[in-house]
Write the structure tokens for this entry.
Amino acid sequence: MDDLSGRVAIVTGGASGIGRALVERFAAEGMTVVAADIDGAAVNGVAAAVGAIGRLLDVTDGPATARLVEEVETSVGPIELMCMNAGIASAGGVELPDAEWRRIWDVNVMSHVHAVRAVLPPMLGRGRGHLLHTASAAGLLTSIGAAAYSVTKHGVVALAEWLAVTYGDAGITVSCLCPQFVATPMLEVFDADSEMRAGSTA
Ligand SMILES: NC(=O)c1ccc[n+]([C@@H]2O[C@H](COP(=O)([O-])OP(=O)(O)OC[C@H]3O[C@@H](n4cnc5c(N)ncnc54)[C@H](O)[C@@H]3O)[C@@H](O)[C@H]2O)c1
């Protein structure tokens, strides 16, 4: 495995759950980690505990995402790894109001678009960079009782595939994380174990 020490990573949704675990593991590998989250106090606490840098960020805010990427590129170092991990759950079917569909679409899908738009130009300039998209098993199969969540996670998988195909020859590598059930606060939104059942349901 490559020596990761000193390489720069941004992790969105770094205050809790899977994002927090990514922050802690990358810091343990010696990476310079910027943990970003809409919960500023929590992300600063997570970052401080492992020597990372905490930043307040609403991932639905494209200009703020671009500003963070620029700040990191100029003040911290070239971004090696961009982890687009922040996400929300939303239980319910097609009857969910349009506003709720748009809210989860903005958080779960457009946040990846904003981040990639910001980070691709410097990565392409260097001819190297890695994109890590947190999708879900619900993006490969489905999640019972959670229509909007399933649709947005399929969107993340589609975006990751498109990026891999489009920029692979330019030195950009892409990973798409598709977990099933992980015991994090997000699961409180789901009824019972719908996310876990995604793995066994078409
Ligand atoms: N927990 C699971 O079973 C599971 C399974 C598959 C995929 N996932 C995905 O993993 C990712 C992380 O989820 P988790 O389970 O760790 O949840 P979590 O709720 O523990 O963490 C999500 C983090 O994202 C942050 N966040 C939410 N909206 C944000 C916004 N607008 N801007 C910035 N930060 C925001 C939250 O403050 C929180 O810190 C999500 O994309 C989720 O869909 C989770």
Observations:
- The first strand starts at residue 8 and ends at 12.
- The two ends are 35 Å apart (CA to CA).
- Residues 12-13, 15-19, 37-39, 57-60, 85-88, 107, 134, 136, 179, 181-182, 184-187, 195 surround nicotinamide-adenine-dinucleotide (CB under 6 Å).
